[in-house]
Amino acid sequence: MKHIETEIIATNIKDVEVINNSKANRIELIENIELGGLTPTQELIALTSEIANTPFNVMLRPHANSFIYNQNDEFIILKQLDYIRDHSKASGIVFGSLTDKNLINLKQLELIIKHKGNLTLTFHRAIDESIDVVSSYRELINYSDINLVLTSGSKNTAIQGISNIIKMLEIEPSQYCKVLCGAGINQNNIIDFVKQSKATRIHIGSAVRNNGLVDKNLLNNMLLMLYDHIYV
Q1: Within a 13 Å sphere around the CA of 75, how many CA atoms are in the beta-carbon half?
Q2: Listed residue (172, 184, 176, 207) closest to 125, CA to CA
Q3: Which of 46, 131, 158, 229 could form a disulfide with 152 if both were Cys (CB 3.0 to 4.6 A apart)?
């Protein structure tokens, strides 16, 4: 049986409380889920630090205009990072940026790595808007400081992008920079997706939400489906 690692999006304290009482492995703490996730407020980060018994990573994304960040954006990002690193109990950050040619912005990536301290780093779905998601992944695996790469295989959903995800998983190194699959994974397709892709790390968002909140029953049922299934 495969070990499946799961990450669940939380956008408020009620979400955190529900995920705390589940078998999920990790929380991704964000705000504005409808925009793909932005940096949460310091208040939410602080409250999560107080109550979370599940490791949590914090989104580091100042706006939803694009994944291209100017100097002012960089300043804001570093201020946000300083707070997360020095004043929270977060395990890691979630960050990604591109150049105006839709290549991985290595300069900004290296700046974040320099300032993140002991926080883990997930490179998020900015990779899906790069020119070539598989080539971009090959570039990212050169950085031992990157722990996860969240991707839908450059498509709107991981189901649609499964062929690229399979290619990424085939070149995945054994010790770091793991592929985390997300977008459009739900109760109806998760088992087939895992079987076909052989993915072992799943990111779950809207599929377990109801009326803007993580639903305990939806979450537990989905995790039960995933953890209790034997894969070949």
Answers
A1: 3
A2: 184
A3: 158
Radius of gyration of the chain (CA): 17
Backbone φ and ψ for 176, nearest 5 degrees, come out as -155, 175
Both tokens assigned to 16: 């955190």
Single-letter code of the amino acid located at 24: A
44: phi > 0 → left, psi -120 to 50 → alpha, else beta; which?
alpha
Domains and CATH numbers, the chain: 5-227 (3.20.20.380)
Distance from C-alpha of 197 to C-alpha of 121, rounded to nearest angstrom: 23
Tell me the pLDDT tens digit for each residue of 62-99.
Answer: 999 999 999 999 999 999 999 999 999 999 999 999 99
User: What pLDDT, in 10s, does the model give residues 60-69?
Assistant: 999 999 999 9
CA-to-CA separations, 116 to 4, 59, 95, 192, in angstroms, rounded: 27, 13, 11, 36
Residue closest to 202 by CA, chosen among 220, 221, 227, 176:
227
Take residue 176 and report the two structure tokens written for it.
Answer: 């770091």
Q: Is 104 left (phi over 0), alpha (psi -120 to 50) or beta?
A: beta
Instruction: Show contacts of 52-55: CB within 8 Å, 24+ apart.
Output: 52/16, 52/20, 52/27, 52/89, 53/20, 54/16, 54/19, 54/20, 54/22, 54/24, 54/25, 54/26, 54/27, 55/25, 55/26, 55/27, 55/91, 55/92
Please provide the size of the chain in residues.
232
Question: What is the value of pTM for the model shown?
Answer: 0.94
